[in-house]
Specification:
This protein is α/β, with parallel strands linked by helices and 227 residues long. It has helices spanning 13-23, 57-71, 127-132, 154-164, 173-183, 201-210, 215-226; strands at residues 5-10, 29-33, 36-43, 46-52, 75-84, 93-101, 122-124, 140-146, 168-170, 187-193. It has one domain (5-219): Rossmann fold (3-Layer(aba) Sandwich), CATH 3.40.50. The relative contact order is 0.23.
Length: 227
């Protein structure tokens, strides 16, 4: 498949601004979609529109749906920071292989945690996009969990890992993946772990986020260039 038009969903300023800084010299155009900030630019003949979705599942789903409707992309990509759950260290860069909304809870009705009646609740990343990542980049493949909170309790991390097999946790990927699945748009998420599995997630996230690192923006641009 050819990827001529690519949408990118990024949560907050400290994750979005490094990309803006990288592509502004390339003649990028800033705009908005219904008050959500966007920037459009070209990479190796591909038109890319990135949207700052803001934090959380509702924002992520809303922005992704609007971006798909407005730009009709061939695929959606996502970059950002994720908390460690099991088997990862701070600074690990990874591509998500699956995405689960861990905080979807109908247990009071006798349903297992995470299960959505009559529909999927674990969303798979697109294999062709995963395979397009150059091996020499050393990007791991890990399972992602999503919920509208910082996951800091060790007991809850253990529960989610045992139930869903996740290695990392964030506040957006499950929602982005759900919209992409409904719209039949391939998705790839490349993220960086902000804390060790046993560390203070909130403090480590704030420290890493404050750095406004360009690494993820550089990786995103390299992957897009290789598609």
């Amino acid at each position: 498949m050819e990827y001529k038009k690519i949408g990118v969903v990024i949560a907050d300023d400290m994750e979005f601004l490094p990309l803006v800084e990288r592509v502004t010299p390339l003649g990028a155009e800033k705009d908005e979609i219904n008050s959500y900030e966007t920037i459009t630019f070209s990479v190796n003949g591909k038109e890319v529109t990135a949207i700052k979705c803001r934090i959380g599942k509702v924002n992520a789903a809303t922005a992704t749906a609007m971006l798909i409707d407005k730009t009709e992309p061939d695929c959606i990509m996502n970059i950002g920071l994720s908390g460690g759950v099991k088997g990862v260290n701070r600074g690990t860069v990874f591509a998500g292989t699956s995405f689960t909304e861990c905080d979807f809870d109908l247990s009071a009705l006798g349903r297992p945690l995470g299960v959505k009646p009559g529909q999927e609740y674990v969303y798979e990343a697109d294999k062709a996009l995963l395979d397009a990542i150059p091996e020499e980049m050393g990007i791991r493949h890990l399972k992602c969990g999503t919920g509208d909170y910082f996951l800091t309790k060790d007991s809850q991390k253990e529960e989610y890992h045992n139930l869903f097999g996740i290695n990392t946790f964030d506040m957006e990927t499950g929602a982005i993946a759900s919209v992409c699945r409904c719209c039949d748009v391939p998705m790839l998420s490349i993220r960086k772990v902000s804390d060790d599995s046993e560390d203070s997630a909130a403090e480590d996230y704030k420290k890493m986020n404050a750095l406004a690192e360009t690494a993820l923006a550089d990786i995103l641009l390299e992957v897009i260039n290789k598609l």
